[in-house]
Amino acid sequence: MRLFAEVLVASLMVIGAFFLLVGSYGLAKLPDFMRRLHGPSKATTLGIGATLLSSMFYFLIVKLDLSLHELLIVVFLFLTAPISANMLGKVHILAHHREMDLPPTGGGSGWATLAEPREPDQAQGREAEPRT
């Protein structure tokens, strides 16, 4: 059982280190902001997640101590990293692109980031009352 625990912890550490290396390399070497955004938001998130899981398994299997701090960090990281990457991408689109320069969305609507704000009544399908 001890050998299995050591192999599990070591393999999670190696996987985590590999993803961290790939994410850091992508952050440093990709040519523009939107491509560079994927390094920390995708690969590095998986690397930190695997590293924290290896720490959690080490303390659980070897030290017989359940540590939920690492699990909470992984959950919060997986929840917040995609949201922050989405927000950074939208800010980049708003700051550097016009709607006519972007590729078509493939649907009936345009880019939601660049859409004109609608009145609340129009969003629900009702006509807005005229303002006086």
Strand content: under 5%
The shape, in one word, is elongated
Number of domains: 1
Oligomer: single chain
- How many runs of DSSP E, i.e. beta strands? 0
* Radius of gyration computed on alpha carbons: 22 Å
- Helix content, binned percent: 55-70%
| Largest beta-sheet characterization | none
Secondary-structure-based class equals mainly alpha
How would you sum up this structure, described in words?
- With 132 residues, the protein is mainly alpha-helical.
- It has one domain.
- Helices cover 67% and strands 0% of the residues.
- It contains 5 helices and no strands.
- It has helices spanning 2-29, 33-36, 38-61, 69-96, 120-123.
- Helix 1 runs antiparallel to helix 3 and helix 3 packs antiparallel against helix 4 (69-96).
- The longest helix has 28 residues, at 2-29.
- The protein is elongated, with a radius of gyration of 22 Å.
Keywords:
single chain, 132 residues, mainly alpha, 5 helices, 0% strand
